[in-house]
Amino acid sequence: MQLSNKKKRYLLLAIFIAASFIIKCVLILKYKNRLTLSSDDLNYIKSAVVFIKGGGYTFHNLNEPTVFVTPVYPFFLAIIFKLFGNGLLGLQMVRFIQAVISCITIWLTYLIGKEFFDGRVGLLASFFTAFYVPNIITVGYMLTETLFTALLGTLLYMSLLAVKKPGKMRFVLLGVLWAITTLCRPTIALYPIMLFTYLIFKKRLSIFEFFKMGGIMFAVFAILMSPWWVRNYLEYDQFIPLAASSGNPFLQGTYIDYEQTPENIVYYKLGNNAFETNKTEVEVAKMRIKQGFREDFWGYLKWYTIDKAWLLWGTVFYWKQFFSITPEFVIFNHYIIIYTGIAGVLLLLFRDFRNSSLIIMLLLYYTATHCIYMAFDRYAFPLMPQVMVLSSYFMIMAAGAARKISSNFGKSKI
Fold first, then answer.
1. What pTM does this model have?
2. Is a pLDDT exceeding 60 seen at residue 386?
3. Longest Cα separation, the chain
4. Where are the domains positioned within the chain?
5. CA–CA distances in Å: residue 178 to residues 77, 79, 294
6. Distance CA 154, CA 133 (A)
7. Residue 325, φ and ψ in degrees, nearest 5
8. Is residue 45 a contact partner of residue 142, using CB atoms and an 8 Å limit?
9. Could you give the C-alpha distances from 57 to 131, 186, 236, 330, 356, in angstroms and in order?
10. What is the signed CA dihedral for 54, 56, 60, 64, rounded to 10 degrees?
11. 242 near 278, Cβ under 8 Å?
């Protein structure tokens, strides 16, 4: 009995997911607690431990309530630590659960590629996602990357279904996903601007329905966000909608190539708490930007556009070597995906921009956001599955064009 193309694709997808999961499990069992960057991951662990011990929600300073990070990922860790403890068993359980979540991302990448283009694109993109080395390694880190990547993929896929067949319950679900994803990483907060622009391009709704669905989505979002808003107001006596952590990355991003020297560094007075210090850093950053553009306009313009975009996409989130896989090998594969992804965007601009505009807007939005603040490869990691969809589209289109040229050339010789 011969399998249909659809069944073959599902079989290959299952093989990709299973193989990727096995590799991740071997990584987790082999390296255990060597899977750490000894930076934010340790703060997330401390935050979860303090929370389950009744010490409130903290991050950098364990004696001070935080608004520096939103709560979804620390609470995710806290639930697992509550069940399995915060020793090696608990940490390993987090890693295994993240391995499962990462495999869900592979499946979502297939679905997104299939919805935007076709099953061939989805399958190739899922293959890239399954065996992209940083996507294997990152499940071992106690960082938001794995969970946020899956949440972002879910939000994007459900958006495509809602655009295809709009309905109240689908926009209620989008409101839920938008809130949870924002509370995992606030950068996605402006996502509805892109979604509803896409809806305009697709011409799926009347003006009345457009505002009705938007109102439903925002109302659900506001309801789910309100406990976080109330908590922040009670702690700091002012409305803090997302997180108050922009000051330091905003300030660090004002230093070209992130180089701080005795000649260019700005010293400033720390506040009574991290929140006050954050506000000071924002003001210092604004001052430095104004001064920088006055003194070196073209240098600063290049830094805030080309240079930061390159730091975001041109390097790879593979900071420690595992399985003897060299950084050179990883960056080579990364470049193939990035450059073919860019080629895919350029092809779609002339071929089918309206249909693919949501994914393109999402990538441009993230690039612009991180060019304003700090840009480095870890921030680009959650968007890599979407880049892989565009890369796969270009590769399949290029392969099809090559076959057509070869066929025509063969006929002409006959």
1. 0.93
2. yes
3. 83
4. 5-245+296-399
5. 20, 21, 39
6. 22
7. -85, 120
8. yes
9. 36, 17, 13, 37, 40
10. -120
11. no
